[in-house]
Specification:
By secondary structure, the chain is an alpha+beta fold. About 35% of the residues lie in helices and about 20% in strands. The protein has a six-stranded antiparallel sheet. It is globular and about 40 Å long.
Length: about 130
């Protein structure tokens, strides 16, 4: 990912779709860092990072469990996130995402990995009602 804020149409659509999926979860905040990456965080720990990505186009990176990471890396279009992939991060280019709602469970997994235990428990209790909305 390059050091520029997300400005492309495809990148802004990615950012809006991820925001819609995650921002209603307990204590989620959105932050743009000094590199221009947009992240969604819980207790200031990122679970989603997005960037413009230069010539290859916008990319979405998210944290998952190592077992989930292995499953995703076996699929076309997913790749280990540079620099942080060894911590369970997976990336995909926006051009390869047909429907962001299909990634919702993985984003939720990332949230639960990053959230403090009290928030993870709160979120798990809310899951049935969140799945309906």
């Amino acid at each position: 990912m390059t050091h520029e804020r997300i400005t492309s149409k495809e990148g802004l659509e990615m950012e809006a779709a991820v925001r819609e999926l995650t921002i209603r979860w307990p204590e989620v905040t959105e932050k743009v860092d000094g590199f221009g990456h947009t992240s969604f965080r819980v207790s200031d720990k990122p679970f989603v990072i997005m960037g413009e990505g230069g010539a290859e186009g916008p990319a979405l990176s998210f944290k998952v469990l190592k077992t989930t990471q292995e499953l995703l890396l076996a699929q076309e279009h997913f790749y280990k996130t540079p620099y942080i992939g060894h911590h369970g991060w997976v990336s995909i280019r926006a051009q390869n995402v047909a429907d962001y709602s299909l990634l919702a469970d993985y984003l939720l997994e990332g949230y639960l990995c990053a959230a403090p235990k009290r928030l993870a428990k709160q979120m798990q209790a809310q899951l049935p009602s969140l799945m309906e909305s």
